Amino acid sequence: MPQRFNTKEDSMSIAVLIPCYNESQTIAKVVADYRAALPEADIYVYDNNSSDGTDDIARAAGAIVRYEHKQGKGNVIRSMFREIDAGCYLMIDGDDTYPAENAREMVRLVLEEGADMVVGDRLSSTYFTENKRAFHNAGNKTVRKLVNKLFHGNVQDIMTGYRAFSPLFVKTFPVLSKGFEIETEMTIHALDKNMNLREVTVGYRDRPEGSFSKLNTVSDGTKVLLKIGMLYKDYQPLRFFGIIACVFFVICLALFIYVMASYFNTDILRIPTLFGAGFLFIAGAISLVCGLVLNTVVGQNRQNFELSMNMLDLLLKNQERPDRKDL
Questions:
Q1: What is the pLDDT of residue 6?
Q2: Which residues does 101 contact at the CB level (< 8 Å), separation at least 6?
Q3: Does the structure show a pLDDT above 60 at 327?
Q4: 32 near 61, Cβ under 8 Å?
Q5: Is the pLDDT at 178 greater than 90, yes or no?
Q6: By the number of CB atoms within 10 A of the CB, which of 56, 87, 119, 140 ranks highest?
Q7: Mean per-residue pLDDT, 109-113
Q8: Which of 153, 142, 173, 147 is nearest to 74 (CA)?
Q9: Over the chain, what is the mean pLDDT?
Q10: Measured distance CA(130)–CA(122) in Å, rounded
């Protein structure tokens, strides 16, 4: 069973989280590098049905090895966040693409400056020169522009797997994604909930020869784009359904003008087209009402989320100081 932290020392503890699937070539080096960078940290490797002995190699390197049998990075992170308690969580990939020299600064921003999530920004450093997959480069740029535009952010790297989190973020983040779209979901959640999001420019190096990415550019990229659309609907329903309503209204108006122009010119009233315009107007009105109703629900959910954050923050502070009796 995971240990609960209830002392000042435990509240400052660091957990390095490494989700892994067939990373036998690199996992020992990753564990050793982050052990050297953060010697006080507990390093957890969660094996996700590896068939190449990743778990045994990680255990021999000194990591705490656990298992998640539901396939997918999102499923692994859900288990990590549920089972592990720490004062700061540092999440990295097991493929040795993220050098460890930025780990201390990312952890410091959480423990000393109160950041809820620190994003390791690859795209502002060496990513585009190191990464040899052109479609991945284009995909990262597309997702960055789309998320920042839709959710009013200025995050430089949306899909990085190198992040640090506070307990408040970890214990209040509802993990819904099952796969690689999890990083996009984390970023959008932090933007929508107005969390303290910080960025650190980090180095990036491509995978060593013989190590292969599990990310499929087309299928996983499609999932990421669909996830952005779904979260936009969930977090910004008035804008989402408002756009749909506007499309219906514009088409309706165009059809109505066409029917009227045709009638004045030929004295022929195109009844089917007029009915079609009417149905589009009704569909647009329904869409707009749905957006208004759901926007009220989302506003209430944000209020409840803020209250839950306050309660969790108070609980954590009381655990740091057992002499307090606030709760």
A1: 44
A2: 37, 203
A3: no
A4: yes
A5: no
A6: 119
A7: 94
A8: 173
A9: 87
A10: 10
- Tell whether the model's pLDDT for residue 27 goes beyond 80: yes
Tokens of 74: 């999102």
pLDDT at 11: 57
CA distance 130 to 210: 16
User: Confidence class of residue 128 from pLDDT cuts 50, 70 and 90?
Assistant: confident
- CA atoms of 185 and 228, how far apart (whole Å): 8
86: Cα separation from own chain's centroid: 20
- Say if CB 102 and CB 120 are below 8 A apart: yes
Q: Token match 């195109």: residue?
A: 270
Structure tokens at 205: 């190096």
Q: Collapse the DSSP code of 73 into the 3-class scheme (helix H, G, I; strand E, B; otherwise coil) and give the result.
A: helix
15 closest CA partner among 78, 54, 63: 63
- Architecture of the domain delimited by 8-233: Alpha-Beta Complex (3.90)
**SS3 label, residue 115:** coil
Q: For residue 228, which amino acid is it?
A: I
* Contact present, 107 and 164 (Cβ < 8 Å): yes
**For residue 41, what is the DSSP state?**
S
Ordered strands of the 64-67 beta sheet: 64-67, 42-47, 14-20, 88-91, 163-165, 117-121, 197-201
Contact 28, 97 (CB under 8 A): no
Q: Average of pLDDT values for 250-266?
A: 91
- Say which range, 14-28, 74-88, 95-109, 253-267, has the weakest mean pLDDT: 253-267
| Domains in the chain: boundaries | 8-233, 237-320
Please state, for a pLDDT cut of 90, what percent of the chain lies above it: 65
Look at residue 269 in the predicted model and tell me its pLDDT: 81
The reported pTM is: 0.82
Give dist(CA 313, CA 167) in Å, integer: 9
Return the DSSP state at 181. Answer: T
